[in-house]
Amino acid sequence: VLIKPPFPPTINIDDLVTSKPNGDKPSKSSNAFIIYRKAYVKELHSRGINLQMTQISPMVSESWKQEPDSVKAEYKRLAEAAKKRYKEMWPSKQRRRQHRKHQQQQQPLPQSLFIDNSKPT
């Protein structure tokens, strides 16, 4: 039995980037497939179907493969909107990561790492 989530998706962007139950921010925004998976699981639950994720995963994967490009494009649009919203909600995470990367590039190597091979030993 192949189940399709409703289209267009009824997912709220803010629900995709909400804090974790312990109050921490999510590690990153969801991609198109993960958003599709959430919609799929929501549809299963609305039909009273409660399966383990190990059972759901192959079903979602097969359903995603059979979706037309227009459906996938809508989920990709949602993923981009979620990414933008995530950056609005937690801008410091992105800046901190860029700053750290910039710092690492600027640090000179210690002189002890350089060997002068021009002098005979």
UniProtKB/TrEMBL annotation:
Biased composition (Basic residues): 93-103
Bilayer-crossing regions: none
Molecular function terms, GO-annotated: DNA binding
Gene Ontology annotations for the cellular component aspect, listed alphabetically: nucleus
DNA-binding region, residues: 26-94
Domain HMG box: 26-94
Name of the featured protein: MATA_HMG
Organism name: Rhizophagus irregularis
Lineage start: Eukaryota, Fungi, Fungi incertae sedis, Mucoromycota, Glomeromycotina
Gene: HMG71
